[in-house]
Amino acid sequence: EAQLVESGGGLVQAGGSLSLSCATSGFIFDDYAIGWFRQAPGGEREAVSCLTISGKTYYADSVKGRFTTFSDNAKKTVYLRMDGLKPEDTAVYYCAAVQEMGGWVPELWPRVGDYDYWGQGTQVTVSS
Which pLDDT tens digit goes with each residue over 39-79? Predict the structure, then answer.
């Protein structure tokens, strides 16, 4: 059974930093791109970043230059380093996996419906 488990969320002041982890199991890690998404109260789930098999990264304009995604393949874990946090970054953060070999187009990485597996989310709250 595929599992993704997020951790590392919490409360931080504006301008601070947090690092989220997404530990995966139950599927072939090397076959999947891993995306990070977030959902604020009353809002839609939005794409934050994506890390492909080849190591290429994509970021939403709202986080570009502040957030970094990377992986430890030996641990089958993907991370989201968040610096310069703003109150508008407050949301539940989710990681998700999409199989690259099934015709997935990397340039369409923000498309929520393409992802096969999802974690339960971790809360990030940024105070002003």
Answer: 999 999 999 999 999 999 999 999 999 999 999 999 999 99
Whether the CB-CB separation of 66 and 81 falls below 8 Å is answered with no
How many CB atoms lie under 10 A from the CB of residue 113?
5
Rounded (10°) CA dihedral 55, 11, 127, 46: 40
Q: How many CA atoms lie within 13 A of 125 on its CB side?
A: 5
Length of the chain: 128
19 phi, psi to nearest 5 deg: -125, 125
Three-state DSSP state, 31: helix
